[in-house]
Amino acid sequence: MVFVLSALINMRHLLAVTHKKSNLGLLLIAGLLLNIVNFAHAQFTLAPLSQSEIRLQLFGKSLIGEYANGATWSENLSADLTSFYVEGEKQMVGEMHFNGSILCFTYRQSENPTPNCFEIWKRGVNCFDFYESDQTIPLMDRRVGRGWVARAWRSDQTSSCQSDLLS
Predict the structure, then answer these.
(1) What's the pTM?
(2) What is the pLDDT of residues 3-23, one digit of tens each?
(3) In this structure, what are the phi and psi dihedrals at residue 36, rounded to the nearest 5 degrees?
(4) Which 3-state string (H, E, C) describes the chain?
(5) Could you tell me if 73 and 84 are in contact, meaning their C-beta atoms sit under 8 angstroms apart?
């Protein structure tokens, strides 16, 4: 929010300077303002959650989620590092482990026993974006919520995820 306010103050100064120059300057200012508003709307986040933040905010909770392709899922994350995953008719018991702040899931019933590992970014009060740890999504895209593979929210609260930001 501070970023947006300071940018708006700078835009006011730019507007005063360019107002006398041309309508092209006004169009430029309007375009920049729209980008700033879009940027602010995207819930800018500086860094992914740490292991302790993930444990505090997601463990012992039931999550509802969606993949970037629109498929939905749910998962209960237990403090004992087990999980229960449901996607349509598919139900799987999972085991979790951390690699630093990266959360990894392995499912016993899965056709692929390779762990799925994610960097988790908090996006608003009750919205969490999951980025595969081996993805090459640019840092700025992750900071503004673009390029995630899955998005989730705690089922006991209203989701704060912005559906118009689907990747």
Answers:
(1) 0.72
(2) 443 444 444 444 444 444 555
(3) -65, -45
(4) CHHHHHHHHHHHHHHHHHHCCCHHHHHHHHHHHHHHHHHHHCCCCCCCCCHHHHHHHHCCEEEEEEECCCCEEEEEECCCCEEEEEECCEEEEEEEEEECCEEEEEECCCCCCCCEEEEEEECCCCCEEEEECCCCCCHHHHHHCCCCCEEEEECCCCCCCCHHHCC
(5) no
Q: What is the pLDDT of residues 20-59, one digit of tens each?
A: 455 555 444 444 444 444 444 456 778 999 999 999 999 9
The two three-digit tokens of residue 72, written as one number: 């939905």
Which class for 113: exposed (0-12), middle (13-18), buried (19 or more C-beta within 10 A)?
A: exposed
Measure the CA–CA gap between 12 and 42, rounded to whole angstroms: 23
